[in-house]
């Protein structure tokens, strides 16, 4: 259950990062509210997951899901640039996440 909470917390990190971008510096109400609600829910789930997952593992995986997820949303939704170096960087992050998960068992 802790791993599922951590996964959802990471996905919510992507949600709040995207909403923050859409909030235009917290000048738009609804995206700002989604940002704050997403942050709160993400932190609560991360904290709950940390009850049984070590800090280093939980935090690394949470931020990694957020980083790679924001990268994918940026490309797919916001039309951000795609190049080989950015893709390699994202793949390396994912490899690090897999290694962290394997090392925690």
Provide a concise account of the structure shown.
The protein is mainly alpha-helical. 81% of the residues lie in helices and 0% in strands. It is flat, with a radius of gyration of 15 Å.
Characteristics of this structure?
mainly alpha; 105 residues
SSE blueprint:
Elements: H1 2-22, H2 29-49, H3 55-76, H4 84-104
Helix pairs in contact: 1-2, 1-3, 3-4
Q: From N to C, what is the helix and strand string?
A: HHHH
Strand count: 0
Radius of gyration, taken over Cα atoms and rounded to an integer in Å: 15 Å
Question: What is the number of domains?
Answer: 1
Q: Considering DSSP H and I runs of 4 or more, what fraction of the residues is helical?
A: over 70%
Low-confidence stretches: none
Molecular shape: flat
Rounded mean pLDDT is 96
Note the main sheet. none
Residue share in β-strands: under 5%
N-end to C-end Cα span: 14 Å
Number of helices in the DSSP assignment = 4
Q: Please state the structural category.
A: mainly alpha
Descriptive overview:
This protein is mainly alpha-helical. The chain has one domain (2-104). 81% of the residues lie in helices and 0% in strands. The chain has helices spanning 2-22, 29-49, 55-76, 84-104. The chain crosses the membrane at residues 33-50, 57-78, 84-103. InterPro entries: EmrE-like (IPR037185), Small_drug/metabolite_transptr (IPR000390), Small_multidrug_res (IPR045324). Belongs to the drug/metabolite transporter (DMT) superfamily. Small multidrug resistance (SMR) (TC 2.A.7.1) family. Gdx/SugE subfamily.
């Amino acid at each position: 259950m802790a791993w599922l909470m951590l996964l959802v917390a990471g996905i919510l990190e992507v949600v709040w990062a995207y909403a923050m971008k859409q909030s235009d510096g917290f000048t738009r109400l609804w995206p700002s509210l989604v940002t704050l609600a997403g942050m709160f829910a993400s932190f609560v789930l991360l904290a709950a997951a940390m009850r049984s997952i070590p800090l280093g593992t939980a935090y690394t995986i949470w931020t990694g899901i957020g980083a790679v997820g924001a990268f994918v949303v940026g490309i797919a939704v916001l039309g951000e640039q795609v190049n080989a170096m950015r893709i390699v960087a994202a793949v390396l992050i994912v490899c690090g996440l897999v290694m962290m998960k394997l090392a925690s068992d």
